[in-house]
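As described in the Methods, two query proteins were run sequentially through the folding procedure within a single session, without resetting any intermediate state between them. The first query and its resulting structure tokens are shown here.
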Amino acid sequence: MERIKCVLSYDGTNFSGFQIQPNGRTVQGEFEQALAKIHKGEVIRIQASGRTDAGVHAYGQVIHFDSELEVSTYGWSQALNTSLPDDIVVIEVEKVEQSFHARYNVAKKEYRYFLSNEKKANVFRRNYTYHYPFPIDLEKIIEGTKYLVGTHDFTSFCSTKTDKEDKIRTIYEIEVYKESDEIVFRFVGDGFLYNMVRIIVGTLLKLGQGKLSPCDIETILQSKNRKLSGKTAPGHGLYLWKVWYE
């Protein structure tokens, strides 16, 4: 029995999310169907670094599975990419120790959020970047991010549907910068709660519009009250970018 680690990229546009569900097309569902095809109908379950929601993309999602087949890493890459639909691509395959776990061994993750601040929407990017045609003060947004870096209770910045009791997380880095005609929000942390990145982005946009001041971010954090933070930014601008392991 070998444990196989894969790094995936996928276009989340036509998925109901990563995790398998009874009524909806999912990344996990498609990947496990591909594995069943390779294993002549045998059910092979995968474990992922985390779940992504409907419409959310991945540049570097990580999964693992166990198989009794003796296949080279190149062979796995070829077999999987031949069996998977066009909106999922395996970009890296590695054979790892049985102690490796795609979810439990995560050391940190990087998410990026892409936003178009142009007046007219780019029809070719409509599924991959959030069109936000309003004036925003980028310097104020950058100033506000400083209050979010570090270890905090992020209750104010996660969905009320979050099922985890422990809402303390550490954000190591936040960058906000312009790249061509888009604004990129880059977050690196030890883990992220349900909708956490999207709620932070929505709150920072509220700040950029002058509806909050940078120091209000600290007040919102300390309040542990979701009602004080901004709207949840749409999923299609979000990408799971990279996962690091211990």
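Immediately afterward, the second query was submitted; its sequence and tokens are:
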Amino acid sequence: TKLGELGYTSLLVEGGSSIISSFVETMNFDKVVTYIGNTIIGGTDATPAVGGRGFESLEASPQLTFTKAKVLDNNIRIEAYRQGRRGAYVHGNR
């Protein structure tokens, strides 16, 4: 709300799994840009891309609409928007 009052209409959040989960779990995001690297680390103790509590069901989880995918230097860049976004700032709602 404060950023909106100051005239900001967009915010880039770059962080680890805890920061990202705080936005995802509260549905305080509209767009996701993520990368798949060309190296697989894995492991049961690996840090997930989105940490936190997660969601109790698939129905409660945010659904995404993928809009772009591009191979960049043997990595993949993916863009997606959260379905069900509301507000005047959402393209098509003006």
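The radius of gyration is 15 Å. We note this only descriptively and draw no conclusion about the first query from it.
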